[in-house]
Amino acid sequence: MNYLLANDTSNSMNPGCKGTVAVLRSCLASCGLKEVAALPVGTGKEYFQECHEEPWNPWKERSWFDRLIYGTQPWAFHPAKVNLSAWHTAVQTWCESVDLSGADHVVINAEGTIHHNQGSALALLGLAKIAQIKGIQVSLVNGTFQSMDPRVLREVLPGCWKVFVREPFSLRYLKRLSIDSQLVPDCLFAYALPAASTERPYCLYSPGALADSHMISEAEIISELQAIQQNGFEPIYIIMEDSDRRHASIAEGLGIPLADMASQTMEQFMELLGKSFAVLGGRYHLTIYAWLMQTQTAARSSNTWKMEAVHKLAGLPWTRLDVRRSPLKTVCPSPAKLSELKSQVLGAYRAGFTP
Q1: In sequence order, what are the beta bridge partners of 250?
Q2: What does the pLDDT read at residue 62?
Q3: pTM for the model
Q4: In which residue ranges of the chain is CATH 3.40.50.2000 found?
């Protein structure tokens, strides 16, 4: 069976994106599927920029469910609705030009993108709808789903071959919408890492996605970096995405070195990770990498519930980075738990995609 991979993030500077797609491709190849084409991250997004009925507002009143279950977490807000007519028009327009020929199956790497009615989320759901219109089997895998217009989800997801959500909060969210899905841990849990170094003096730090949306102040970042130093760690400010550069000058002003993933290979990243005693901050895939290396973590919330949810998946308490604690409280899953999560990834793809 031939497949087209959509939302290919392998060319991203983020090592998490590279590792995730590498494992996804390996899983599909082990099932006998042959990749015939790939659509890079962002493909088709331009068609869906005018699909909101009102401007997107992260401070909009949160739904009662979000308030009840998730309280004041920064990602727990209710999104603007989608202009369904405009979304259908965008789907039809893109359908006329997108080339899915040669593919028996379209596999969409959701990778945390299906949230808050973002243009990229509407585009990936639009591509799934296009595949259905063209009579091609389609699956959405490795996804976090949150705060989308339920009408779009209900129109697209029931017609998919597989819907794999990567954490339990998304599973519960879709179940509330009467949409079937399967809990399959993030592909990155099946990534093979080298052994850690015996000398581990460093502490990697990244403020994460909320810094990009101005929901973390410079004062908070400074206090966190200073707390790391006061706890006896050697902090390194890691730039996983271009948005991390916005606050890199803060680290430099404190004499903290930078590690820019745009100029480092995966091998160099692994070497740095292997020499790190702890990983602190808000990067989801960096946290998973750390756990695979048996590195301690303390996290902060992100732009979705993925950080809280991956702790739940790993059987860990939500351990937020709290500079008032001394020493800082950190966590890491046991090797047995990580082995279990890896087996769940490999088993789910084997059962779901082997012809």
Answers
A1: none
A2: 47
A3: 0.92
A4: 202-338
